[in-house]
Each structure stands twice: as structure tokens, then as C-alpha cells.
Amino acid sequence: MKNPVSITLKCAGKTLAGIAAVILIFSVSPVYDFEKPHPFEGPDIFDPYAGTDSLTEWKRANFHTHTRVKGLFNECPEWPDSVYEDYRRLGYDILTFSNHNRLTLHPYDTALQVNVYEHGYNPFKFHKLVFGADKVTLFDHLLPLFPFQKQWQLDILGKKADLIVLNHPDRTFNVTGRCMSRLTGYRIMEGDSGVDTEFRHLDEALDAGHYAFALTSDDCHDSDASWCTGVRCCWVDTPSGQYGDLRDALARGRFYSMRIPDFGNGDWAAKYAGNANLPRIESIGVRNDTIYLELSRKASLITFTGQGHVVLAESRDSDSFAYAMAPEDHYARITAFFNDGCVIYTQPFARYDKACAVSPYRVSPHPVNACLTILYNLLVIGLAAACICFLSHKKDKAGTAVN
């Protein structure tokens, strides 16, 4: 009689070998030579809010929203129409549905359809919002360990998308400062996803000269749960919620982000009341070399953060503040904290030369290193072949034993 423990161990070994083979097969990637960090430089200061003097077009939006979908795999119990109404009652003007690897139709108005989905099913949670694609790109690295794997995904997605948002980097495994100093090709980064209010990963990218806008969204998976619904948003300067207007506003950085407390902690009447009385930016921009900000009410603290995640200046109990960027300041972004728990985040103001570029944003060159690419993929293929041979060997032995 065979030992049950031995049989269990053999089955576990075969299962692990099979899983390893699949992971390795989905680990192939080119290897890149990344550009060295190059902080922002130039005589001019990029103002993402130039031309946003009118406050009549600012609309409240959530861009990262999950709903129930047809099929077995679901992360949210509510259908799109129900989620849409839940957000509308909280005062949101724009809601886009970003289900995993699936385009979701607007429940009411085809004119408001936004083709966006969340790419990625890897357990490391290296996920991206993909705007403007006609169909979903399904390829993903199951274990995107290395920066060059992440970069290849961004390159692949960028060929079919208008905009890419790097989702929740503070909840993504192995997203380090070294990684953020290399990645390029995304236009926007989620800064506050509930883990860290400091936008450290955005600063790591900005420190290296990779300009990106900051976005906050609920990443909602249940619009009936008050703690994860209506607790983040963007205020977008757009004449409508139609995709063309949204795309232009997001690409130009004409929006700011907000963290919102769960007013009432489950008391929806208190939540509706709190969401109806949020602080706002009244005026923001650049005059000469001075960045200015005016708010609808006093903030307990306003900070200007710059290179190296250093606080350049701060003001307490104020509804306005200005900071004159010094020649050695590569960039500055503003955070305003309010006594009720609200937080406002602005886009970064960065140095550049407007005679040479329209903005500091650029896709940094990352040529393929042919030698390392061959060596890396040979190693991956060799390890996958070894796992498959192991499985085949076990199968042959089992067949021989039966005969």
C-alpha cells in the first residue's frame, strides 16, 4: 500500500511545478537600458491649470469604479446603473466604469460612454487604467518582478490607448523608488489609495524627471459600503462628461484630487450632507515664478512639496498661500489639509523650457538590451522546460507503476 503522505507530497510537487511552468511562460520580456534620472530643468514653470479661471466647468468625477458584470467573476455586487445612482446621490457628475480586463457600457447614455478598463490580473497588483482602447489587451505577466517587465506592459498598452493611469502604486508589490525612477509611458498616477496620503511614489517619479499628473479615485468594489464610496474624487475642468472633453482635460492635467472622510461612518444622511459641503480650489496658477493657491475655506495646513519629498514651504490656518520657486527648485506640488479630514492635492508645477516643449512630460528612451534580453529569456524558457520535464517524468513513472 502506498504511503498517503508520499502521494500527497508528489501531487503537491507536480502542482507547484505546473504553476511554476505557467508563471515562467508568462514572464518573457525584453530587457531595457533605462535612462539615468534627470531632474526637471529650464527657465519656465509649467502650469497645468493655465486657462482655468472660470469655476463653472469644474465637475466631480471618479474614474476607478468596479461594478457587477455578466459571468462568474465579479468583484462588486451592484450593476452599473445602481452604482451610477449611488454616486450621483453623493454629488458626482462623472463616473467611469473600470472593470478588470473588460469594457463596460454606460448604463444610460451612449454619449457618455468612456472606454476604460483596469488591466492586470497578476497577484502583485501591478494594475493600470487604460483609456481609449477599442478592445482589451489580455497579456499580463503573472509575476511582474522587474522594472523591464512593467515597462513592457506599459509599452504594449500605450500602442492602443490614449492615456494610461498607474493604479495604486502604494498597494503594488515591488514598486520601489528605483522602479519609479525608471518607468515611463504612463500619463497619470493614482496617489492616494487609502494607504499613504503623502504621494511618495509620485515624488519618486518626479525626482527622476518623469512628469505625471496625480489622481485619486475610490477603486470602489461595493457602492453600498459607505467606507469605500465617495471617499476620493477628482475635480475636472471640463465642459461635459463626454470622452473627448475628459480625455483632453486629463491629458492636460486640468484637474485636482481630493481625499474625503466617510462622513457619518455609515450614516448616509450625514454622508450626503458632508459631501454637499466640500472645500474647493477657488484659484490656482503661476504668476512669474510664484505659485499661488486660493481655497473656498481655511485649511489647517498647506504644504508645498518638492525634490526629494522635501517640504519647501507651509502655512497653517489659511485659505490662501503663495510660494516663489527658487532656481534650484525642480518642481513643487501643493497639498491642503482640512480639519474635517478632507485633503486636496494639486498637480505638480515643474521646470521646463517652453521654447523646446509644450510640457515637462516625455516618454524617456529605453532601448532594448539585446544581450540581456536573450540571456534572460533563455533562462526563463530553460526553467519552464525543466518544470515541464519534471511533470512529464512524474507522469511516466506513474504510468509505469500502473502497468
Provide keyphrases for this structure.
403 residues; disordered C terminus; 5-stranded mixed beta sheet; alpha+beta; 8 helices; 16 strands
Describe the structure.
It is a single chain. By secondary structure, the chain is α+β, with helices and mostly antiparallel strands. Helix content is 27%, strand content 23%. It has 8 helices and 16 strands. It has helices at residues 4-25, 80-89, 147-158, 177-180, 200-207, 243-252, 268-275, 370-402, and strands spanning 44-46, 58-62, 94-95, 116-119, 128-131, 163-166, 188-190, 213-215, 232-237, 255-259, 281-287, 290-306, 310-324, 331-337, 343-345, 349-352. The strands form 2 sheets. Strands 1, 2, 3, 9, 10, 11, 12, 13, 14, 15 and 16 form an 11-stranded mixed β-sheet that branches. Strand 4 (116-119) and strand 5 (128-131) form a beta hairpin. Helix 1 (4-25) runs antiparallel to helix 8 (370-402). The longest helix has 33 residues, at 370-402. The chain starts with a helix and ends with a helix. The model is unreliable at 398-403 (pLDDT under 50).
Order of helices and strands: HEEHEEEHEHEHEEHEHEEEEEEH
Shape: globular
Structural class: alpha+beta
Largest sheet: 11 strands, mixed
Cα end-to-end separation: 16 Å
The helix content is: 25-40%
